[in-house]
């Protein structure tokens, strides 16, 4: 199969879909890999390193898209890429369609095969291609939150760790998934006081064991969530429903009860965000203040550390990309139930129910 890797066009997105070592693996399996010149520069991978790995370089995105049977990307196609897509082309990337009806309609119109990293799911419920970027985002959320609490952003001007004689910040993490766990590591490692909320008792038991009792773990319900958010200096929201829009757990009315200058880092912004007042921001302008609360809602947080993120992402996506390229998407989804769950849109039909429900389109069963 001919696999194309274009340069990412999202603002400040420096990741690339595959490392040179990943290219080498694909080429050795008998596939051709077309890389747009400069695609890996932001992650520290030169064109020469890709050529040495067996890739063929292309000067512009049109040359990559037009000659490729499968496109590997990091972020969803943007409007300037819509006309580059063609019927039957496989697009394998983070899509997050539940929060992007326009893109869902365009992918259906173009009759492509859209496979989403974020909905590939194992039989145990794990999301293996979301996990590495969730881990990165979780770790980064604490760095971002510390920045948001500084006075220059509109924050209350407190140090996350405190100092001897002065209390550290109180951090509340909503959701104990991969992102929440890694946010927990980061916050506790910075000596903050930490509470994490979830609705899964088994997951809460796991967090308790991992954190050795160093954080407070609470069963989440409407009353407990409101109580903890009101007390928080920093809230990390990381609740995820695979393929669906994130639930709005923090309403505007709750926001008004928070401390002036408190901060929210909404990791779930890719799926619409967990806060009613959340809207996507960029690395160039990452924050805004609403109702007196600093919001950080960058929807490609791992793009801030592109080399780490690209390597972690390739580790996770490469086996699936290789299987799809080698078997074709039809055989791959029949053989591998995880890939079956990654199918979002096939030749004009939305086939993932949570996506269809979120964007108001009919769902066509894969059967």
What portion of the residues fall into strands of 2 or more residues? Answer: 15-25%
Low-pLDDT parts are none
CATH architecture of the largest domain: 3-Layer(aba) Sandwich
Radius of gyration: 21 Å
The ordered string of helix (H) and strand (E) elements is: EHEHEHEHEHEHEHEHEHEHEEEHHHEEH
Strand order of the largest sheet: 3-2-1-4-5-6-14-15
> Main β-sheet: number of strands, strand sense, barrel status?
8 strands, mixed
Shape: globular
Task: Determine the CATH superfamily of the largest domain.
Answer: NAD(P)-binding Rossmann-like Domain
Average pLDDT works out at: 96
Counting structural domains, the number is: 2
What share of the residues lie within helices? 25-40%
Number of DSSP-assigned strands: 15
Total helices: the number is 14
CATH fold call of the largest domain: Rossmann fold
Query: What class do helices, strands and sheet pairing give?
Result: alpha/beta
